[in-house]
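Quick one: structure tokens for this chain, please?
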Amino acid sequence: MKFLPLLFVLFLPQSLTVDTSNAVVSFSVKGPLGGTVHGTLGGLKADIKFDEHNLSASSMHATVDVKTIKTGNDKRDRDLCNESTWFDVAKNPTIAFTSRSITKAASGYAAAGDLTIKGVTKPYTIPFTFDGKVFKGTFVVKRQDFDLGKMVGDEVTVNLTVPVKR
């Protein structure tokens, strides 16, 4: 009986430390004049517990700081942060994702959970790969799901590159 607690601890997913200085959260969306607007978000904070052999006990919670948004146009960045039709960072300073489950997928894994943007929470699934050192994922956010802005495309492609240390 003394070994049971030890065995339980051995099978818990490992907490991983995110290398925030090298993590990249980028996005792209069709702009109002037909071009594509590219940008990044910083201030990633994440709590990741992941074990590819124990996915049911694995979990992810991450936030990014909306005021760090960079699109290459300072005026647009200020507008995205301040206008109520966009992010309104005074009321909604972060974008958050919390997993409810992590499962094996055809080409990696999938984290199903809740994505919160501008105070609105919707179920989203983020497909990702993990090579033991870096999580990579790409998913599409429907802009209208979160009542974000106007005059740009409805689909925002988000790319994640999140290096971690054990």
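The radius of gyration is 18 Å.
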